Amino acid sequence: MPRKHFELNSDVSKLIDKYDEINDVNFNELVNKALKFYLINKMNYKDVKDALNETDNEASKYVDETLRSSMGDINRNY
Q1: Does residue 77 have a pLDDT over 50?
Q2: What's the average model confidence in pLDDT over 50-55?
Q3: Closest CA to 34 of 45, 49, 47, 23
Q4: Can you give the pLDDT at residue 67?
Q5: Is the four-CA dihedral 26, 28, 34, 37 of positive or negative sign?
Q6: What is the C-alpha to C-alpha distance for residues 24 and 59, in angstroms, rounded to an integer?
Q7: Nearest to 66 by CA among 40, 43, 35
Q8: Residue 71 — pLDDT band, cuts 50, 70, 90?
Q9: What is the pLDDT of residues 6-48, one digit of tens each?
């Protein structure tokens, strides 16, 4: 798996520390889940499917659920 280097700003660092205190999470798992959630919500369905290449059934299920809930939010606004 490729490694990426980044620096947390102080607000994010504080939030992560508090979240870890409450939930006792692995930092790598937290970062991966948070980035996956963010990216899936920012990308369109086709791009997400292409990127994941249908190999990760859990991710595909998550994408479908996220898109369905997003469509529900859109429908409520009209």
Answers
A1: no
A2: 76
A3: 23
A4: 65
A5: negative
A6: 23
A7: 40
A8: low
A9: 899 999 999 999 999 999 989 999 998 999 899 999 998 888 8
| Cα 66–Cα 50–Cα 45 angle in degrees, nearest 5 | 30
Whose tokens are 């369109």? That residue is 44
Q: For residue 24, give the 3-state DSSP assignment.
A: coil
Spatial distance between the Cα atoms of 45 and 23, rounded to a whole number of angstroms:
31
Q: Rounding to the nearest 10 degrees, give the CA dihedral for residues 60, 63, 64, 66.
A: 160
The set of long-range contacts for 68-71, using a CB threshold of 8 Å and a minimum separation of 24, is: 70/41
Residue type, 19: Y
